[in-house]
Design goal:
about 220 residues, globular, alpha/beta, three-stranded antiparallel beta sheet
Length: about 220
């Protein structure tokens, strides 16, 4: 069973993927963490984010190891656990440079597919999981929410992590990421391609119940 969850930042993908994976007792693959890990590493090394060739060379040289459990994905970059460090707003601000580099995307898609093959069954989330990485997934979801709601969610997360940020900064960051990422999940918006769920007014419990019902219906139907 392969379940993909795509959509914009702040739509609830990560939380939904972790909780749905736990409900289904499947590993959780957080692909966005891979892009963030490269962004964080490049930031630490002082790599020029405007130089795609340098970014690609750095990405290829980085050793990324993922520990995918039912409630988490721990990320190790060159032997160091960076699972928390990659979640800062400063890393979010430079991750779009990594995400828009087609060479890096090709490298990470291959690594994600390799990881998926090893896991067998899993829940994965990102920007292109159902459209590019795992097009034959059993169940495909696209989550969406208003940018105001998404910014508020991200703002609350960052504040909880001790980040000193303004809500305006968060909204600007989301808008910039949407401009880069939207093309990756848009193919899934065509009729019959995926199950679209607006999470703006849903609690996480309501969302997981709805997603689990869809997975159950498809499993029974299959």
């Amino acid at each position: 069973m392969i379940v993909t969850i795509d959509g914009p930042a702040g739509s609830g993908k990560s939380t939904a993927a972790r909780k749905l994976a736990a409900r289904l007792e499947l590993p959780y693959l957080d692909t966005g963490a891979m892009y963030r890990a490269i962004a964080y590493g490049a930031q630490c090394r002082g790599v020029d984010f405007q130089d795609e060739q340098k970014l690609l060379e750095f990405a290829v040289s980085m050793q990324l190891d993922l520990d995918c459990g039912p409630t988490h994905t721990r990320v190790r970059a060159n032997g160091h656990d960076v699972s928390e460090a990659i979640r800062s707003l400063s890393v979010s601000a430079v991750t779009p440079y990594v995400a828009k580099c087609q060479g890096i995307r090709a490298v990470l898609v291959a690594r994600q597919q390799e990881t998926g093959a090893k896991l067998g069954s899993f829940v994965t989330e990102g920007r292109d999981q159902g459209s590019v990485v795992f097009p034959l997934a059993d169940v495909k979801f696209v989550l969406e929410a208003s940018i105001e709601k998404r910014a508020d969610r991200r703002f609350q997360e960052l504040q909880a992590d001790g980040e000193d940020v303004e809500i305006k900064e968060v909204m600007q960051d989301l808008a910039a990421r949407d401009a880069v990422d939207a093309k990756h999940w848009e193919p899934l918006l065509l009729p019959g391609k995926a199950i679209l769920i607006d999470t703006t007014n849903l609690t996480i419990a309501q969302l997981i119940d709805r997603m689990a019902d869809h997975v159950g219906d498809i499993s029974i139907g299959g």
